[in-house]
């Protein structure tokens, strides 16, 4: 088994199978979307021809939405999957949110939550989309005084209640829309069926991966994750690799890897954040160059699937820092990837 090449293939980082951003997000199940600008590259680089306009079209049409789901963090999901995914993760997400609120000494009574969500809904019935600043103004106009932090919690609660999701794509600010208007066809599934579908999506796009990887990625309890995997047991095969029990999906790919490939990964990219077992592609000695202990992930450079450096693009010019002492970077492949990124952002 070569888990690195299989992950590169199944994550659509080499020999991508899809043309549209929506197809990529649907295949991946969910994609981390903390970085509002770079999430676009994280999706687009997995398409055959990366296009910012194509991402914007799918986002504005609701084929892709950005909201808080797994691990109470920002995710991109296919619009028609939001309903059943939210139902599946709501309890664990709410526990995480309530914990944050408690640590910040914020308590929001149910009556206040209902009043504020009615204000959000009334505003969006008339205006279609809203920025956070719009919500702040309309709440203040109703005579309700609150801090910016409290307003953020109200927006998050409205997401978890199924009221709000992302609106249109703006350059630097998230916007919000009513789920009933943006995603009129969203579907819901029985919990057992949803667990099985989520497990299938994860292992086909992220495999080979461990049970613990799936639990980390989804934020669900280990027993729920086992149930999902057991339900698709005939679709999975397992193999021991360096002490890890790695599971692969029958729809996963193992052929097509070519040596010498270089990738400029966005911060929070699924290739790293989608696993608990990051040592497969990131040497423990270099983990501090990819992320810190607070969960902040930085842009990294892959050479043949292994993290070897960092990159940034201040003022639109890509700069690279190769930190892996044994890395011999493929300069031609690096320049090709830089050109691909520059073409995308223009």
Describe this structure in words.
The chain is 45% helix and 15% strand. By secondary structure, it is α+β, with helices and mostly antiparallel strands. The strands form 4 sheets. The chain has a 4-stranded antiparallel sheet with strand order 9-10-11-12, with helices on one face. It has 3 domains: 3-182, no CATH class; 191-249, Winged helix-like DNA-binding domain superfamily/Winged helix DNA-binding domain (Arc Repressor Mutant, subunit A, Orthogonal Bundle); 262-345, no CATH class. A hairpin with a 5-residue loop joins strand 2 (64-68) and strand 3. The protein is built from 15 helices and 12 strands. It starts with a helix and ends with a helix. It has helices at residues 3-10, 21-28, 39-44, 52-60, 82-103, 110-127, 132-141, 148-160, 179-182, 191-206, 211-218, 222-231, 270-273, 287-290, 331-345, and strands at 31-32, 64-68, 74-78, 130-131, 164-166, 175-178, 236-241, 244-249, 262-265, 300-303, 306-312, 319-322.
Overall geometry comes to globular
The total domain count is 3
- Largest sheet properties: 4 strands, antiparallel
Number of helices: 15
């Amino acid at each position: 088994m070569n888990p690195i090449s299989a992950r590169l293939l199944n994550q659509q980082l080499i020999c991508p199978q899809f043309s549209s951003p929506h197809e990529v997000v649907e295949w991946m199940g969910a994609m981390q979307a903390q970085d509002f600008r770079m999430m676009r590259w994280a999706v687009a680089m997995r398409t055959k021809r990366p296009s910012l306009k194509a991402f914007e079209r799918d986002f504005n049409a609701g084929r892709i939405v950005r909201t808080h789901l797994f691990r109470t963090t920002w995710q991109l999901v296919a619009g028609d999957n939001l309903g059943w995914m939210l139902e599946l993760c709501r309890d664990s997400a709410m526990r995480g949110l309530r914990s944050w609120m408690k640590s910040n000494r914020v308590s929001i009574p149910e009556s206040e939550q209902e009043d504020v969500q009615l204000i959000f809904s009334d505003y969006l019935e008339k205006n279609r989309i809203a920025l956070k600043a719009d919500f702040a103004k309309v709440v203040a106009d109703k005579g309700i005084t609150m801090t910016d932090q409290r307003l953020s919690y109200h927006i998050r609660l409205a997401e978890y209640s199924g009221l709000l999701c992302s609106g249109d794509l703006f350059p630097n600010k998230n916007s919000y829309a009513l789920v009933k208007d943006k995603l009129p066809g969203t579907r819901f599934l029985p919990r057992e069926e949803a667990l099985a579908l989520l497990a299938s999506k994860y292992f086909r796009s992220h495999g080979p991966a461990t049970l613990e990887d799936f639990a980390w990625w989804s934020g669900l309890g280990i027993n729920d994750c086992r149930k999902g995997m057991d339900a698709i047991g005939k679709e999975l095969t397992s193999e021991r690799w360096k002490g890890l029990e790695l599971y692969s999906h029958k729809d996963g790919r193992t052929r097509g890897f070519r040596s010498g490939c270089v990738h400029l990964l966005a911060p929070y990219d699924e290739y790293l954040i989608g696993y608990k077992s990051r040592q497969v592609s990131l040497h423990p000695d270099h983990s501090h160059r990819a992320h810190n202990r607070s969960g902040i992930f930085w842009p990294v450079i892959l050479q043949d699937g292994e993290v070897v450096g960092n990159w940034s693009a201040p003022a639109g010019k890509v700069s690279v820092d190769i930190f892996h002492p044994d890395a011999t970077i493929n300069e031609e492949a690096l320049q090709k990837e830089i050109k691909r990124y520059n073409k995308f952002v223009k």
